[in-house]
Design goal:
CATH superfamily of the largest domain: P-loop containing nucleotide triphosphate hydrolases
Structural class: alpha/beta
CATH class of the largest domain: Alpha Beta
Strand order of the largest sheet: 2-3-1-4-5-6
Order of helices and strands: HHHHEHEEHHEHEHHEHHEEHEEEH
Number of strands: 11
Radius of gyration: 25 Å
Helix content: 40-55%
Number of domains: 3
Largest sheet: 6 strands, mixed
CATH architecture of the largest domain: 3-Layer(aba) Sandwich
Strand content: 15-25%
Shape: globular
Bound molecules: guanosine-5'-triphosphate, magnesium ion
Number of helices: 14
Length: about 400
């Protein structure tokens, strides 16, 4: 059930004219009087008892409702029950979404990263520090994802997140811990804050995967010795903190908002962590690679999202992914000057005895972004023989994402 369907299902409980918020959980903040049958007078009586919202109503026990003067019990029980139904719909729907918490010191680049994947690059220049929490709903490869961008300024960190950790750190599917790699003067602070985040998670018995996002890894800066030292330093510090917490595994990823691909790659890793389906995709790619006697296979979208890949070693992985991404960039350039996009793209390495070849498999999202299946192989013939067969296996899975 989509949000829209959920909303249409529950809107009959509300008076006409009540503006139902898009964010499902905000429905629980609506006043009781927005419900059909609750008039202003009764609403005021509830207010006197500190029952200000539908969420408050839902938290009452229908078996044992409070006594409210001039309000009959059975009416109150009915309202409690309706509120509980609403709460259930809202909660269930929210659980189907993935919750990604984007956290890190102020100025790390959290809000900018979100802006990049939402293609709002132009707003970056005018970004202000995030006040408190900003929730954004993203459609990440068909997944509804709620990202919680927790503003990193000290006043929010202490007052908000660690005072009421359960609000922010419960049922988190993934933590993206964003670090400014260009500011070594704050590495100790970044590591200390990371410890606070892991402690809050541990206290709540939460063990989400953690991706440390090494941001501001700008292309020109990356080559400098200073930056490379920075990277080693911060990775060491973060690893040391992670070691204090059993079961926490941290992965790292370099990003810069000036290269959208780097952000997309980071989200590709994130996708693998939050979705069970991508594991199956990788299994199919493995089967495919073996069957066609290839060295590697990767499924990559034209905007740089790696859906899954299979390789026997990391050199092949680098080779296929980097070559594919560059060939795709070339293909995007070709279409930008008006050429029709080719359905297959291939680069031969005759002296090395292999080819890297991509076949368009399908398109995703409303923007119809093509997705190519890339293989690194010495025997292209076998690819074409088996392509249809594997496409048939992959498509139902892919459709689960879309
Ligand atoms: N050079 C460089 N600057 C970046 C990068 N990402 C973000 N910035 C800049 O860093 C500054 C802070 O970025 P924000 O996205 O506002 O940081 P934030 O983590 O959301 O900060 P708070 O909301 O205060 O927690 C802005 O001036 C960005 O333009 C990057 O990859 N490279
Ligand atoms: Mg921000």
């Amino acid at each position: 059930m989509s949000d829209d369907e959920s909303i249409s299902k529950i809107k009959d409980f509300f008076k006409t004219g009540v503006l139902i918020p898009d964010e499902l959980d905000e429905i629980l903040n609506l006043k009781p009087e927005s419900l059909i049958g609750v008039d202003q007078i009764n609403s005021d009586k509830l207010l006197d008892r500190n029952i200000k919202s539908i969420g408050d109503l839902a938290s009452l026990d229908p078996e044992n409702p409070p006594e409210i003067k001039e309000l009959s019990n059975h009416i109150l029980i009915k309202w409690i029950k309706i509120s509980r139904v609403l709460e259930k719909v809202v909660r269930e729907q929210i659980r189907k979404q993935k919750k990604i918490v984007l956290i890190g010191l102020d100025n790390g680049g959290k809000t900018s990263i979100l802006a990049v994947i939402q293609d709002r690059f132009s707003i970056i220049k005018s970004l202000l520090p995030t006040k408190g929490v900003q929730r954004e709903k993203l459609d990440f490869f068909g997944f509804p994802i709620i990202s919680w961008d927790l503003g990193g300024q000290v006043q929010y960190r202490d007052k908000y997140y660690f005072n009421k950790p359960e609000l922010f750190f419960t049922e988190v599917d993934l933590v993206l811990y964003v670090i400014d790699t260009q500011d070594p003067s704050r590495f100790n602070e970044a590591a200390e804050y990371f410890r606070q985040v892991l402690t809050a998670l541990k206290d709540l018995d939460e063990q989400p995967p953690v991706l440390a996002v090494l941001n501001k890894s700008d292309q020109d800066i990356r080559k400098t010795l200073q930056w490379q030292k920075n990277k080693t330093d911060i990775v060491n510090k973060i690893d040391l903190v992670a070691k204090e917490f059993q079961g926490i595994v941290v992965e790292y990823c370099d990003t810069t908002i000036f290269q959208k691909e780097s952000i997309m790659q980071m989200f590709s890793i994130a996708l693998k962590k939050v979705s069970e389906t991508s594991e199956i995709i990788e299994n199919i790619l493995e089967d495919f690679t073996r069957t066609i006697e290839a060295k590697a296979a990767s499924l990559i979208s034209m905007d740089g999202l790696i859906f899954g890949n299979y390789t026997k070693n990391s050199t092949d992985e680098m080779l296929i992914n980097n070559t594919a991404l560059l060939l795709q960039t070339l293909s995007n350039f070709h279409t930008s000057i008006g050429l029709i996009r080719e359905k297959s793209i291939s680069l031969d390495f005759p002296l090395n005895g292999f080819s890297i070849s991509g076949e368009k498999l399908f398109e995703y999202s409303d923007l119809q972004i093509p997705v190519f299946l890339w293989v690194l192989t010495s025997n292209l013939e076998l690819v074409y023989d088996k392509l249809e067969y594997f496409k048939e296996q992959l498509m139902p899975l892919i459709n689960m994402f879309l």
